[in-house]
Amino acid sequence: MSTGITETETEEEQTEAVGAARAAGESAYQQARMEKKEIDEANREARRQAREAVENADRTVELKVFRYDPEVPEKEEPRFDSFPVPFSKGMTVLDALMWARDHYDSSLTFRHSCRQAVCGSDALFVNGKQRLGCKTQVADLAEQGVPSTVRIEPLPHAEVVKDLVVDMEHFYDQMESVEPYFQDEDTPDGLNEQRQSRENREKIKMSTRCIWCGACMSSCNIAAGDNQYLGPAAINKAYRFAMDEREGEDLTEHRLNIIEQEHGVWRCQTQFSCTEVCPKDIPLTEHIQALKREAVKKNLKFW
Amino acid sequence: MHEHDVIVVGGGGAGLRAAIAAHEEGADVAIVTKLHPVRSHTGAAEGGINAALRDGDDWTDHAYDTMKGSDYLGDAPAIETLCQDSPGETIQLEHWGMPFSREDDGRVSQRPFGGLSFPRTTYAGAETGHHLLHTMYEQVVKRGITVYDEYYVANLAVTDHPDPEDRECHGCIAYDIKSGDLTAFKATGGVILATGGDGQAFDHTTNAVANTGDGPAMAYRAGVPMEDPEFVQFHPTTLPSTGVLISEGVRGEGGILYNSEGERFMFERGYANNDGELASRDVVSRAELTEVNEGRGIEDEYVYLDMRHLGEERIVDRLENILHLAEDFEGVDGLEEPMPVKPGQHYHMGGIETNENGETCVSGLYAAGECACVSVHGSNRLGGNALPELIVFGARAGYHAAGRDMGEAQIQTGPSAAIEHETDLDTPVSPGALDRPDPDVAADGGAVTADPDAVVESALETERERVETLMERDGINHAEIRADLQDAMTQWVNVFREKEGLQKALEAIRECRERYQNVAVADPSRTFNTDLIHTIETRNLIDVAETITLGALARDEFRGAHWRAEHQERDDEHWLKHTMIAWNDGSPDLYYTDVILEGQDKAYEPKIRSY
Question: How many domains would you assign to chain A?
Answer without folding.
Answer: 2
